[in-house]
Amino acid sequence: MPSDTLKFKNSTRPQGMKREDWNSAKGKVIEASKVANARFMAVLIHHRIAAGKKDKLFNWQLNKLLDEFHDNYLTWTHDDVGIVFLDRVGQGAECNLTKEMFAPDPASSRHSYPRIVGYAATCNGASHIASAADIVLGSFGYCVNQRGDLDVTKRLMRAVWPLIWHPEQSDVWGDGILLVPWNVTFRPYQADYRALFKHVNRLVDGE
C-alpha cells in the first residue's frame, strides 16, 4: 500500500508481507541509491562514551556531521551549496533547532555554515529520500554493531560500502566514517577501535 512504511527495522514491516519480499524491497532501495549517485557520511561514537553524554549526544553528532559536510564536502571538494533535512528530534524540537542552525546567536558557541542555504525537518512517510537514508544508514549501523551472523553483515556491508562518501584518492575513514573522538588515549577504547577497524575491513573484504 502507498501508506506502508519502508524502513530498515523489521518491526516496521507491513502486516502480511513476507520477510523475503521485505528484504528484497530494501535491497532495491540500496541499489537505486547507487544509481542516483547518493552518498552518506556516518558518525560513530563508542557506546561507553555515548552513555556518559546522552544529554549532548545528538548535538555532538550533528555538529560533527555538519562540520564535515560544510567544510570538506561543500567547501573543499565541490565548491557548492547544500541543504540539510533533519529527522524528528521529538516534541517539535527540530523546528527550534533548524532556526538556531540557520541563524545562530552570536553569543552562542554554535558554528555558522554559510554554504548550507536551508534547513528543514521531515517525518515518516513524507519523503522517499528519508526512507532511503533510513535503510542505508540502518544497514550500515547494523553491520558495525552486529558481530554474529557474518554472512548477512558481509552482504549488507558490501552493498552499502560504495555509498560512503570520501574524496577521490582518499580512504573512507575520517571523511565518510567519522569517529568521535577520532583519537583516544584510553587503552581499552583503543583496543575497541582496533577491533572495529578489523571487523569492518573483514566485512568489506569478504574474508
Q: Let me know the largest β-sheet.
A: 2 strands, parallel
Shape descriptor reads globular
The number of helices is: 7
Taking the alpha carbons of the first and last residues, their distance comes to 39 Å
Query: What is the residue-mean pLDDT, rounded to a whole number?
Result: 87
Number of domains: 1
What is the helix fraction of residues, given as a range?
A: 40-55%
Give the uncertain stretches in residue-range form.
none
The percent range for strand residues is 5-15%
How many β-strand stretches? Answer: 4
Structural class, please? mainly alpha
Series of secondary-structure elements, N-terminal to C-terminal? HEHHEHEHHEH
Radius of gyration: 18 Å
Neighbour order of strands in the largest sheet: 1-4
Write a structural description.
By secondary structure, the chain is mostly helical. It has one domain (43-205). It is built from 7 helices and 4 strands; from the N terminus they run αβααβαβααβα. Strands 1-4 form a two-stranded parallel sheet. Helix 6 (150-160) crosses helix 7 (187-205). The longest helix is centred in the first third of the chain and has 21 residues, at 57-77. The protein is globular.
